[in-house]
Amino acid sequence: MVSILAGTLLFEPWEAFLYSLIGMFLGGSLGFYLGRVLGKKFVYWIAGDKQKVDDYLEKIKGRETVLLFFMFLFPFFPDDLLCSVAGISKIKFSTFSIIQFVTRITSIGCTIIVYGGSFIPLDSSWGIWAIAGLSLLGVIAFIISYKLADQIQEWFVNLYTKIGNWFKNLFKKN
C-alpha cells in the first residue's frame, strides 16, 4: 500500500494504477513460482517462522481459492508471504493468476481512490470516519467470508462448471 500511495504522489492516478498492477502481479507471480519450485524450506525462510507458514496452510487448506481471494483483497495481510504460501498449496497457477488480477485491480483502485485523498479528504473528520467505516466493513466481510468459505468455494466451483459447460456446448455446436 505504501508503494501505491507513493506512486500517486509521483504519477497521475491511472499511471500509478498501471505501474502498481504490473509490479504487484509480476512480484506475486514470482513469489508463487519460488514457493512452487523451491518448496516449504524457502517459504519458511522467507517467513522467518515455520509455525506461521504452517498456520496459514492449515487455515486455507481445501478453501484456498476463496480465502486467498479475500486475503489478497484486504490490505492487512502479508501479500508477499501469501504468494509463496500459495505456491506450496494445491492451488493452480492459473487460478492464482485470476485471483491476483481481480484482487490487485480492486485493491490498487480502492487504495488510490480512498487513501490517495482525491475522493475522501484525509484532512477532514468525515474523511477519517469514512475510511474507518470502510475498514470496519472490510474486516466484517473477511470474517464472514472465512466462516462461509466452504459454501462460497462450492458456489464458485458450480459457477465455473456451468460456464465451462456452456462454452463446451457453444463450441460443440459450431
What does this structure look like?
The radius of gyration is 18 Å and the shape is globular. The chain has one domain. Helix 2 crosses helix 3 and helix 5 runs parallel beside helix 7. It has 174 residues and is mainly α. Helix content is 83%, strand content 0%. The longest helix is centred in the N-terminal third of the chain and has 26 residues.
The major sheet is characterized as: none
* CA gyration radius, whole angstroms: 18 Å
The helix-strand sequence is HHHHHHHHH
Low-confidence stretches: none
The overall number of domains is 1
Number of strands: 0
* Overall pLDDT score: 81
Globally, the shape reads: globular
**Portion in strands:** under 5%
User: What structural category do the secondary elements indicate?
Assistant: mainly alpha
Measured distance between first and last alpha carbons: 47 Å
How many individual helices?
9
- As a percent range, the share of helical residues equals over 70%
